[in-house]
Amino acid sequence: MAEAMIPLSIAVLTVSDTRTEETDRSGQALVEHLSEAGHHLVEKRIVPDDVYTIRAVVAQWIADRNVQVVITTGGTGFTGRDSTPEAVSVLLDKHIEGFGERFRQLSGDEIGSSTIQSRCLGGLANATVIFCLPGSTGACRTGWDGILAEQLDSRHKPCNFANLVIPERGQHG
Fold first, then answer.
1. How many domains does the chain have?
2. Boundaries of domain holding 140
3. pTM over 0.70
4. How confident is the model at residue 173 (pLDDT cuts 50, 70, 90)?
5. What distance in Å separates the CA atoms of residue 44 and residue 31, rounded to the nearest whole number?
């Protein structure tokens, strides 16, 4: 008998000065992907690209025992107000260096050298895993399909991040 996937509780944050619920295709794509995978959406929010606003929301979710995963979209580039990495990185207990590396590897096959402008990152804080993706819908698809679908699946071997945030497991699985 196949092992059942253990659903995770996920919060999604869209970082944008211009998006609304009606125009937030990237955040909605993440919600659809996580729901189709069998996970639970705890909350979805949109905030402006402001270091302190982003940091406050992510910190609140890190402190909330009902949130096991935070996924952000937007604010990871190099334009003037892109500030998601600066907002989130100081909150992390451990950085997942391989997340950004793997994302850029996958993204490079799609957009070539432009992928070097992605400052996406991942990390762990207070038994919560955090992934910061670029704001394009394509980048969210790449991140989900190429990394997050497996790493948030408790059945993925040899290891996954799901088993680090499931309280009764607390290990790689």
1. 1
2. 9-165
3. yes
4. very low
5. 8
